């Protein structure tokens, strides 16, 4: 079981019911496995990249969700393109991923840049954080939707969970293709 956008009070409620669940304050995820077995391991790797530290809750939601469902995840935080050197210093490791989740607020340009620098599918996640005229995530959403970068898809605002599930499905489908050969 995995629950997203949970409060500390909700976690305490679950604990009071005797469930040995885990809670992460950054991602606000409660996770619990009744049978104590680990999720089946998915082949491949997902890179979770976020532009700035304000995007961390959504980035951790994506990373922890993917890990819960058995994916290997590499985290690349604070690699926004306002300081392009930060992204470029991590790009070789990001290129080893089979799927990239790019999370950004403000103008949402990170996903387009990563899509242009890698050959993996990129799942763009606009966030509702940012100053100026980000309009609670509408500005990065529109930037991502209007991007001419190839191989990029977009989920709704702040949807790290949905991006992670899509990335896991891509890994599962790729594995099925390999097994069919």
Per-chain topology:
Blueprint: E1 2-3, H1 8-16, E2 22-24, E3 29-31, E4 45-50, H2 56-68, E5 72-76, H3 84-88, H4 91-94, E6 99-104, H5 110-117, E7 122-126, H6 138-145, E8 152-154, H7 160-180
Parallel strand pairs: 4-5, 4-6, 6-7, 7-8
Antiparallel strand pairs: 1-3, 2-3
Class per helix and strand makeup: alpha/beta
β-strand amount: 15-25%
User: What's the order of the H and E elements?
Assistant: EHEEEHEHHEHEHEH
Whole-number average pLDDT? 92
Radius of gyration: 17 Å
Low-confidence stretches: none
**How many separate domains?**
2
* Total number of beta strands: 8
CATH fold description of the largest domain:
Rossmann fold
Distance between the termini: 33 Å
Give me the side-by-side strand order of the main sheet.
Answer: 5-4-6-7-8
Question: Shape from CA axes?
Answer: globular
**Assigned CATH class of the largest domain:** Alpha Beta
Describe the sheet with the most strands. Answer: 5 strands, parallel
Helix content: 25-40%
Question: What is the CATH architecture term of the largest domain?
Answer: 3-Layer(aba) Sandwich
Total DSSP helices: 7
Protein name: PurE domain-containing protein
Domain PurE: 44-176
């Amino acid at each position: 079981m995995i629950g997203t956008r949970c409060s500390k009070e909700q976690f305490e409620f679950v604990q009071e019911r005797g469930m040995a669940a885990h809670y992460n304050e950054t991602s606000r995820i409660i996770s619990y496995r009744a049978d104590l077995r680990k999720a089946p391991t998915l082949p491949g790797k997902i890179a979770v990249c976020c532009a700035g530290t304000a995007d961390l809750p959504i980035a951790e939601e994506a990373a922890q969700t993917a890990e819960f469902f058995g994916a290997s995840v590499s985290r690349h935080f604070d690699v926004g393109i306002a300081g392009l050197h930060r992204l470029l210093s991590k790009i070789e490791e990001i290129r080893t991923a089979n799927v990239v989740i790019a999370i950004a607020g403000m103008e949402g340009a990170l996903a387009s840049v990563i899509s242009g620098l890698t050959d993996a599918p990129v799942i763009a996640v606009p966030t509702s954080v940012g100053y100026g005229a980000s309009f609670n995530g509408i500005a990065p959403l529109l930037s991502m939707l209007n991007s001419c970068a190839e191989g990029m898809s977009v989920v709704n605002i702040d949807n790290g969970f949905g991006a992670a599930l899509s990335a896991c499905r891509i890994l599962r489908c790729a594995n099925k293709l390999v097994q069919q050969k």
